[in-house]
Amino acid sequence: MKRLILILMLLAAPLWAVQPDEVLDDPVLESRARELSKELRCLVCRNESIDESNADLARDLRILLRERLVAGDSDTQAIDYIVDRYGEYVLLKPTTSGANWMLWLAGPLMLVTAAAMGWAFVRNRSTATTSAEAALNTEEQERLRRILDE
Fold first, then answer.
1. CA dihedral in degrees (95, 97, 99, 104; nearest 10)?
2. Which helix (H) or strand (E) holds 32?
3. Minimal CA–CA distance to 23: which of 7, 11, 34?
């Protein structure tokens, strides 16, 4: 029973990230804030959203996001404000504009390059064995055949 409780507590740990004093009174604004905070990266935890992180900076970002929403910003305006202030790194899913298109294309290009290099290696290797055997004269081929038969 203790193990089950421990497992449930560990699974619920991300839910504890948002403190009760951060929660907005308006449920619509709060749900918007929760959805937007899932798209923003915690700058301390690196691969966690600010919604899941317990870091102080993530808390500050959650509060800042909620302040912007209460001030009347739209979802894009609130995200743009935070991105302007902290940089595009704060987005968990970066945009595909500007220099980021190179980052988006780098993975598939490397995969295609590696596949082409692997195909060329295998192709050259298969032709290399036949050309090495062809380089043997008849006496060497006969000797090789005797060695292999033993």
1. 60
2. helix 27-37
3. 34
Structural domain ending residue among the three candidates 90, 114, 134 = 90
Is 125 contained in some domain?
Answer: yes
Full domain range(s) for residue 39: 14-90
| pTM for this prediction | 0.58
Where residue 70 sits, what CATH number does that domain have?
1.10.8.640
> Per-10-residue mean pLDDT for the chain, 150 residues long?
68 55 74 88 86 86 89 90 89 78 87 95 76 73 88
19 and 66 belong to one structural domain:
yes
Residues 110 and 128 in one domain: yes
- At 99-125, the pLDDT tens digits run 778 877 889 999 999 999 999 998 888
Q: Which long-range contacts (CB under 8 A, 24 or more apart) does 75-80 make?
A: 75/32, 75/36, 78/36, 79/36, 79/39, 79/40
Amino acid making up residue 78: A
Dihedral angle at the C-alpha atoms of 10, 12, 13, 14, nearest 10 degrees? 130
**40 near 4, Cβ under 8 Å?**
no
The count of domains in the chain is 2
